[in-house]
Design brief:
With about 350 residues, the chain is mainly beta. It is built from 5 helices and 24 strands.
Length: about 350
Amino acid sequence: MTRIFFELQRPIKSMLPRLLLLLCGGLLVLPGTVCGDDVKPQNDVQVSVRIQAQTQVAFDRVYLIDIAAIQAPLTLKQKLAQIELGPAARPGKVRNLPGSWIVSRIKAVLGTVDGAELTVPEQVAVARAWQPLPTDLLRAELTRYLKDQLPGTRFQVNRFKVRGPKALPTGKLTVSIVDRKRKRLAGNISLPAIIYVDNTVCGSVTLSAWIDCYKSIVCAKTDLFGKTVLTARDLEYREVNIAKAPARLLTRLEAAVGKATRRTIKAGTCLRPNLLQSVPVIRKGDRVQMVARNGALRLVTFGVAKSNGDRGAQIRVENLTSRKIVVGRVKDARTVEVLF
């Protein structure tokens, strides 16, 4: 005979339940069970399952071993321990399991075992263990990511925020930022990150922050008038927070030297490509040398440029001998390589 004890968890409002509670020592006894002193577990009981009204689990599935103290021969104890009671609640939440349902699951395994005692509350609250979202860990991971992406660059992370689940499963946490190959890691940025617990993906978050990023930028050393052809003496490097500056700033002197200003530029202004223009090395009407190559064969003649062009640009050139107009690429101030 299996003896089943249901512990009362709710207030008793009627007289009859109160009498039953007194007569049976605080236990509600189902038909076919024994009341009073006879319900106390005997020393010769071979199978006993005692379940607490409240318990906590760490994993996403609930088994009987997680919520019960089991006494039974080894083989039967292993079978009882492996009884699955369904999914656990989300981290930080609670799932309530009806005691009668748990008993039915246990009896399906016990079968005709005699002398078994089951002590089961009317309802079992199974809480899921959890840990908070590790903001410090996520900020450190973002800092590491920026160091890899901005080698040798001074930067500062401000207004750091995390959007995502606030409660995570227990275990060892690791974070991996999804690399989107952003061209600009300054100012407001937002990056997705994957959260792992014990090397298993358990969710994703979004990391956002304001990044002050400092780089050496080419700036005007003195006031520059419009159409000034720049030399190295006109320019200097200055450390600039590019998070608060326009995009596409020049970072190399070579990109500015030899070009002309489009308008007047004040001292200290950070240079951008749209502030400068190329200075043509060949102007319309200049007499140039035309060079044509075909394998080892090299032909040279003279022509007249029909348009302006800086080094590397394509211009039209009139052949002085044939009077034909062809297209060539400017090599230097006196030479145009004819394109076939």
